[in-house]
Design brief:
- Strands 4-10-9-8-7-5-6 form a seven-stranded mixed β-sheet, with helices on both faces. Strands 11, 12, 13, 15 and 16 form a five-stranded antiparallel β-sheet that branches.
- About 40% of the residues lie in helices and about 15% in strands.
- It is built from 13 helices and 16 strands.
- β15 and β16 form a beta hairpin.
- The protein has helices at about 5-15, 60-70, 80-90, 110-125, 140-145, 175-195, 225-230, 255-260, 285-295, 305-320, 320-340, 370-380, 405-420; strands at about 30-35, 35-40, 45, 100-105, 125-130, 160, 200-205, 235-240, 265, 280, 345-350, 355-360, 365, 385, 385-390, 395-400.
- It has about 425 residues and is of the alpha/beta class.
- The mean pLDDT is about 95.
């Protein structure tokens, strides 16, 4: 068995430097099943973070669908094939608001890139607005919205970033004032784009504000900002890569949960349970304008194997009742998490299979970034895989596969309780 040091050295030599890994002692995974994964040493870990295998690692139905189609036909998307059409009908049936036309691609980054270009095609304007603590992918266009690293050449004028909503430090000074304050920030950014000659094309956001720390906003929170965007003639893009496909339990899509009516919806990783497939769904006139403007096609987007994988995910979600399971297990886990006693726990929140524990210090609620970093590492040594999120990476991010069970939730919370008692505050 290759040791970790040798593998990291080989990885850097072959794949280049700064290839990030999770954890100080990276995990060398070799197998997965459901919410469990195993490393090269035979150690088992409970995966409480990975949303890529949405319905569980190596789900047999998804594996069978991929295998069967791959052994039958996989080819260029410029040939006719019923698989993508059947899937498109099934997927768009889960959406409302006349969102019934789609483009299939390979990654969420591609999907968001297309969505932004759709907004430009429809409006004829260049300006894009996102939040200042977000991530939507890594194409050149989309990377300008990232809050993690500024692209070469510095910030571009046609992208404006507005302060993101926050649970403990709300915009406008209070939770009651936050919705209007957020809308005011977007209105200000639109005015700046117009004044600078870029014009305003669209607003893109994750309707669950996942990277921002899942602040658990009330239904209707985005009504004021929607009015601002509509009045300015822009499009609203909902990035559903993280909250979509039933993850929040109560709703199949994050934008339905918060009451948002988007013009374009994007989705990615969970859509094919790890198979590289993603999609953009839009109103027909929006998609038509995009195709007329850009003459877009994608060689592999929506190929027969991808369509089969994505369709199998919908099968599993329906047949195994995973959205309802996410709701029930998430509610149970949230109650258990809320009973944890630790001086740095400032808030516990979430929905379905997306939970958060925010850690802060003192009356000023200073983000406990270092503590959460150590906590994630400690949980890894105890066989629990998690991560962090939020502007200061001070929020424990819990986002397991949808097949997560009550027993696994109890194991997670029990292990977390042990870790909290072992770590100095």
């Amino acid at each position: 068995m290759t040791d970790t040091k040798a593998m990291l050295e080989r990885r850097e030599r072959l794949l280049g430097p700064n290839m990030t890994t999770f954890y100080r002692d990276p995990v060398h995974l070799v197998r997965g099943e459901g919410a469990w994964v195993w490393d090269a040493g035979g150690n088992r870990f409970l995966d409480c973070y990975n949303n890529v295998p949405h319905v569980g690692h190596c789900h047999p139905k998804v594996v069978e669908a991929i295998t069967k189609q791959a052994s039958t036909l996989n080819t260029h998307t410029r040939y006719l094939h019923e698989g993508i059409l059947d899937y498109a009908e099934r997927l768009t049936a889960t959406l409302r608001h006349d969102l019934d036309a789609m483009i299939m691609v390979c990654t969420g980054s591609e999907a968001n890139d297309i969505a932004l270009r759709m907004a430009r095609a429809v409006t004829g304007k260049m300006g894009i607005i996102g939040t200042d603590n977000t991530y939507h992918g890594n194409t050149d266009l989309v990377s300008h919205l990232s809050s993690k690293r500024t692209p070469i050449g510095g910030p571009v004028g046609y992208v404006k970033k507005v302060p993101s909503p926050d649970k403990l430090r709300p915009l406008g000074g209070s939770l009651e004032a936050q919705a209007e304050a957020f809308a005011a920030e977007v209105a200000k950014a639109i005015a700046e784009l117009d004044a600078e000659g870029h014009g305003f094309a669209g607003l893109i956001l994750d309707p669950f504000f996942a990277n921002e720390g899942v602040p658990m906003l009330e239904r209707g929170f985005l009504d004021p900002v929607s009015k601002v965007v509509r009045a300015a003639g822009g499009l609203i893009i909902a990035d559903e890569v993280q909250p979509g496909f039933g993850r929040t339990g109560s709703d199949f899509w994050g934008h339905e949960r918060i009451g948002l009516v988007p013009d374009v919806v994007t989705m990615g990783k969970p859509m094919g349970n790890g198979h590289p497939v993603a999609a953009v769904v839009a109103r027909p006139e929006v998609l038509a304008e995009f195709r007329n403007t850009f003459s877009y096609f994608n060689t592999f987007g929506g190929n027969p194997v991808s369509a089969a994988a994505a369709s199998a995910v919908l099968d599993v979600l329906e047949e195994e009742g995973l959205q309802q399971q996410a709701h029930e297990v998430g509610t149970h886990a949230l109650k258990q998490l809320d009973q944890l006693d630790h001086p740095l726990i400032a808030d516990v929140r979430g929905a379905g299979m997306f939970l958060a524990v925010e850690f802060a210090e003192g009356p000023e609620l200073t983000p406990a970034t270092g503590f959460v970093k150590d906590l994630v590492e400690d949980l890894r040594t105890r066989g629990i895989l998690t991560s962090s999120m939020g502007r200061d990476r001070h929020i424990l991010k819990i986002r397991p596969p949808m097949c997560f069970s009550h027993d696994q939730a109890d194991l997670l919370v029990g292990t977390l309780d042990t870790a909290l008692k072992a770590l100095p505050a």
